[in-house]
Task: inverse folding
């Protein structure tokens, strides 16, 4: 009998391929290693991230789903809750007991009830509504709070760069 | 490529060594003088050392290939990281034993480092077993041979160090002996884990106790390690000085031991609770609910347990989760602090009789207690617990007399439950309550509070004694369950259970008729409170319904032009075929040319700002359905922020391409 983590990941992969949520694509990088997934997230419509396709990597621990996976954007990101190196800072990816920013309640933390799909959907909504109370990228949070125009311009530039388009002229 | 990098060094070393040896032999002509010459000359020795180091590295690579094959990137990363610590600690150790410094000493340290790295790799490999879908027999052969080899070498070196220390007194051999002893514990731990994994893989069903065994092994090994480290530090302090190089590993060993011990204690408590106190889930219950265990996402066919909060999981999944945290995975109820079903010891006085009465309720359906109050029997009889599940869907359609058929049903149910035995009756009541997410206070012989569930609003609010205290008089019962009731009944006063007077409590104790009647009175008060709560909920529901209807109609009038575009773009996302992309682009042009959109984009024309647009949209549609209008705003926002329509098409096309590429790639995998 293979490990429970592996079986659960396979079940989640199956679920995601049979019934894919809108705007999200995820699956193992290769079938040999089910503990490293690649995901594509589309920017939420109606926000400055609209139209973007953001590649991300999700790394699962051996004891998934008892411990949370880690998620990292593989493209440039400028967002209050994404570290400069692409790591996503979202409360449902933190196991209770570790709290990098000190703003989270216990109830928002990781639990086996969560799944890849829920994580990715949460990240999409995080793109739409940054949480500037516990910023991972302080510059982005500051810009988001103080100069929304400039922030959105940067976001649109990022969106275009993920699509391989040149930055807007203006 | 790998060879290209190393071959330079190999060739360079080979040339240097042959030059040194050749030169020496050329000068001395004989074997013995040549050796003496080389060992006496420092540059020659440097070359020989370099050659030896290269040789050792090559041997290491060979063994690695033999036992591990290709290393995974994560393994390599960990190896490098741990090697750095090992090297720095070795350098610190050199400072203590600088008198013993010799080529032999250096060689022994290098060997130690190599053996250590093989221990780490073996550990990682065995941990990886659980994650790997396919385990070949080569893997087993490799792991077993490696582990036995490591164990033998460890024991040999421990033995050698022991003898050396006994015969020649304390020396650097002490450090080696201790290091190899630690390595032995690592081998043992790895071996134990390997055996557990193998046993687990042999079985078709998951091995429930595996995690427990792993945890206990960890505790034992952790304890041995801590003892070894403490002993070593003490000896070192006595003979030499404080061993700085051993402090970090000592601390780490202590910490991991403490964590393992804590885990074992907490999880043992939780698992104990689970095994002994939480009820097994019967087949019917499994059939009634969505029987997928949320932890492993597999179907539950027996072997499931129900937590105090009514959530159901596999026993094995719960066990492994409880080893991390002692909470319910779904609602995060702390199971160690939650009231336990079946523990009567600390139940407040009034809850126990209430529960007792609830158990016996089915037997007391004679109209005697209900009719004196002037209630029609059908409305008084349905006991509150039984009533709840039927209510939420049925109430809105049935205005006044709706409770009657319900009442009859539930009456029958209660009778059946009570007939099956007191405990079953109580459990039946609890099950019936599961829907309302209110872990019935009367469930399973009574819990201290009414409701340990995640949303126990009503359960907490309307306490038993509240009814006894006089809420009875506060509500004129029965309140007919109608869709609209103009006046909301005032919430009953919040009284504590301690609000019961001794008299009232005494009245409820005993088996005489008046005692039972007092209990029934108490229960009826509870029922009244619950009924009023349901009526309130109903009112809220109708209010919400009305709001929703209003919103829907409002958005329906505002957003028709935008819907075609949004639905198309959704199709575009899902199907990702070239034909739909063309349709999207055309429909997009249509939407952008509609008067509404133009109207939106003109006032903000060159501002490059999407926020004001959103603001103009928001007041029009407030609640959920506003999504469509927001989406239409997005397309106009894009146009407003300097991307012209053709460019937007380009964006969508690229996005589509990216998606289709990936879906086909995913499908190919």
Result:
């Amino acid at each position: 009998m293979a490990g429970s983590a592996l079986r659960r990941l396979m079940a989640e992969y199956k679920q995601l391929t049979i019934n894919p949520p809108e705007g999200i694509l995820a699956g193992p990088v290769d079938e040999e290693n089910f503990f490293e997934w690649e995901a594509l997230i589309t920017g939420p419509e109606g926000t400055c991230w609209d139209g973007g396709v953001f590649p991300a990597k999700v790394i699962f621990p051996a004891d998934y789903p008892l411990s949370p996976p880690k998620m990292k954007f593989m493209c440039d990101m400028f967002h209050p809750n994404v570290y400069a190196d692409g790591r996503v800072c979202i409360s449902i990816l933190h196991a209770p007991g570790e709290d990098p920013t000190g703003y989270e309640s216990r109830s928002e933390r990781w639990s086996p009830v969560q799944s890849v799909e829920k994580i990715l959907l949460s990240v999409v909504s995080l793109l739409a509504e940054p949480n500037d109370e516990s910023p991972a990228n302080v510059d982005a949070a500051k810009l988001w709070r103080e100069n929304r125009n400039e922030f959105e311009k940067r976001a649109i530039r990022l969106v275009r760069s993920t699509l391989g388009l040149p930055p807007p002229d203006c | 490529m790998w060879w290209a990098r190393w071959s330079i060094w190999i060739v360079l070393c080979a040339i240097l060594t042959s030059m040194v040896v050749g030169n020496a032999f050329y000068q001395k002509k004989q074997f013995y003088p040549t050796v003496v010459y080389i060992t006496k000359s420092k540059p020659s020795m440097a070359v020989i050392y370099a050659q030896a180091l290269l040789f050792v590295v090559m041997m290491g690579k060979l063994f690695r290939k033999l036992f591990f094959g290709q290393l995974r990137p994560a393994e390599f990363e960990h190896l490098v990281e741990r090697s750095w610590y090992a090297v720095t600690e070795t350098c610190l150790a050199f400072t203590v034993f600088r008198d013993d410094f010799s080529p032999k000493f250096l060689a022994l340290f290098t060997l130690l480092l190599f053996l250590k790295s093989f221990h780490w790799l073996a550990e990682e490999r065995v941990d990886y077993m659980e994650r790997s879908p396919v385990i070949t027999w080569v893997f087993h052969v490799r792991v077993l041979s490696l582990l036995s080899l490591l164990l033998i070498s460890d024991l040999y070196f421990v033995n050698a160090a022991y003898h050396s220390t006994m015969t020649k007194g304390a020396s650097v051999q002490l450090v080696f002996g201790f290091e190899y002893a630690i390595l032995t514990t690592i081998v043992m731990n790895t071996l134990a884990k390997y055996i557990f994994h193998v046993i687990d893989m042999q079985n078709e069903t998951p091995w429930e106790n595996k995690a427990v065994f792993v945890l206990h092994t960890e505790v034992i090994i952790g304890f041995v390690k801590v003892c070894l480290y403490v002993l070593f530090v003490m000896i070192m302090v006595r003979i030499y000085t404080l061993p700085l190089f051993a402090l970090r590993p000592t601390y780490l060993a202590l910490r991991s031991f403490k964590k393992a011990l804590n885990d074992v204690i907490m999880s043992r408590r939780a698992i104990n609770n689970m095994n002994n106190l939480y009820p097994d889930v019967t087949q019917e219950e499994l059939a009634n609910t969505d029987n997928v265990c949320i932890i492993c996402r597999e179907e539950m066919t027996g072997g499931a347990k129900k937590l105090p909060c009514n959530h159901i999981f596999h026993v094995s999944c719960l066990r492994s989760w409880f080893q991390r945290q002692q909470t319910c995975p779904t609602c995060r109820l702390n199971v160690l602090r939650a009231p336990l079903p079946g523990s009567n010891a600390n139940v407040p006085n009034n809850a126990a009789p209430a529960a007792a009465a609830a158990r016996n309720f089915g037997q007391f359906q004679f109209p005697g207690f209900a009719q004196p109050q002037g209630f029609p029997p059908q409305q008084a009889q349905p006991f509150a617990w039984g009533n709840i599940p039927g209510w939420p869907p049925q109430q809105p359609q049935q205005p006044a007399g709706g409770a009657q058929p319900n009442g009859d049903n539930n009456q029958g149910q209660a009778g059946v439950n009570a007939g099956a035995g007191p405990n079953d009756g109580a459990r039946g009541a609890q099950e019936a309550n599961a829907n309302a997410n209110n872990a019935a206070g009367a469930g399973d012989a009574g819990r201290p509070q009414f409701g340990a569930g995640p949303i126990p609003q009503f359960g907490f609010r309307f306490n038993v004694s509240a009814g006894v205290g006089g809420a009875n008089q506060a509500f004129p019962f029965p309140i007919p369950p109608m869709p609209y009731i103009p006046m909301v009944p005032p919430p009953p006063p919040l009284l504590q259970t301690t609000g019961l007077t001794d008299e009232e409590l005494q009245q409820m104790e005993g088996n005489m008729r008046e005692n039972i009647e007092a209990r029934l009175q108490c229960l009826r008060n509870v029922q009244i409170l619950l009924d009023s709560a349901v009526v309130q909920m109903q009112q809220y529901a109708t209010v919400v319904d009305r709001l929703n209807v209003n919103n829907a109609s409002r958005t329906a009038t505002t957003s028709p032009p935008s819907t075609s575009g949004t639905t198309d773009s959704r199709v575009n996302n899902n199907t990702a075929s070239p034909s739909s992309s063309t349709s999207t682009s055309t429909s997009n042009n249509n939407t952008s040319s509609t008067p509404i959109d133009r109207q939106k984009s003109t006032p903000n024309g060159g501002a490059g700002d999407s926020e004001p647009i959103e603001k103009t949209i928001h007041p029009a549609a407030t609640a959920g359905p506003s999504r469509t209008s927001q989406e239409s705003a997005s397309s106009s926002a894009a146009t407003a922020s300097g991307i012209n329509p053709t460019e937007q098409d380009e964006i969508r096309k690229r996005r589509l391409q990216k998606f289709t590429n990936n879906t086909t790639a995913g499908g190919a995998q």
Remarks:
- The first strand of chain A starts at residue 24 and ends at 30.
